Write a sequence for this structure.
């Protein structure tokens, strides 16, 4: 158990819908990362927050957004869902905001199926 | 741009045999390198990491990896594989101090 908690573990929804994935980082971790794992794209970095502020953006679609709240939990919002958004979404956390000297711990992921 | 290549999509190894998973990276500066393992239905677990110093890195579950700058490689090894090592293994490079770029992964099957 990495200490990173993600909910829900599984989610099935229809195209065009909107869903919210939630992440609670490890106790004491200020940085939260979101990754998408799909069959065709592999593991892709989406976005990173540090202590409530956005720090880095990767291959995140405009239909997707995220935020980190004062209690440090984070939510990833996916809207106007398409079949291709079906994937495993990972949240990860770390104490610091950079990779250097830092260890990033991953949650077990949220499986999203769009039908 | 940074990238990671894992040349082997799938490896089958007998229980008790040695295992080596290859990883090549492309990165202009000193890389931060990682190996993660993903068991079926599980998240990503960090096996080991390299930031600097000794190029032979010891990790959990009996794994080790060697950083070779001249070959741009960071291969993962285990002397004797157990059935529980069957999983998918990902090599990653940390770039721009913010994100990990992952390889496509290598699936390891362990036969009795």
């Amino acid at each position: 158990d990495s200490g990173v908690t993600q909910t829900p573990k599984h989610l099935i929804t229809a195209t065009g819908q909107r869903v919210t994935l939630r992440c609670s980082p490890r106790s004491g971790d200020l940085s939260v990362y979101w990754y998408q794992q799909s069959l065709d794209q592999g593991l892709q970095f989406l976005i990173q927050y540090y202590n409530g502020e956005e720090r880095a953006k990767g291959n995140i679609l405009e239909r997707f957004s995220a935020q980190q709240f004062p209690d440090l939990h984070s939510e990833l919002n996916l809207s106007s869902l398409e079949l291709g958004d079906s994937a495993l979404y990972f949240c990860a956390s770390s104490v610091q905001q950079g990779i250097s000297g830092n260890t990033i711990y991953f949650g077990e992921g949220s499986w999203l199926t769009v039908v | 741009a940074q990238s990671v290549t894992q040349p082997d999509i799938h490896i089958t190894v007998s229980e008790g045999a040695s295992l080596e998973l290859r990883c090549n990276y492309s990165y202009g500066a000193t890389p931060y390198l990682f190996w993660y393992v993903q068991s079926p239905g599980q998240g990503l677990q960090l096996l080991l990491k390299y930031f600097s110093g000794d190029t032979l890195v010891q990790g959990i579950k009996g794994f080790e990896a060697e950083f070779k700058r001249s070959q741009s490689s960071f291969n993962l090894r285990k002397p004797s594989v157990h059935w529980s090592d069957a999983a998918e293994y990902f090599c990653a490079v940390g770039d721009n101090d913010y994100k990990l770029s992952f390889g496509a992964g290598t699936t390891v099957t362990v036969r009795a």
User: Anything to note?
Assistant: The longest strand of chain B covers residues 87-95.
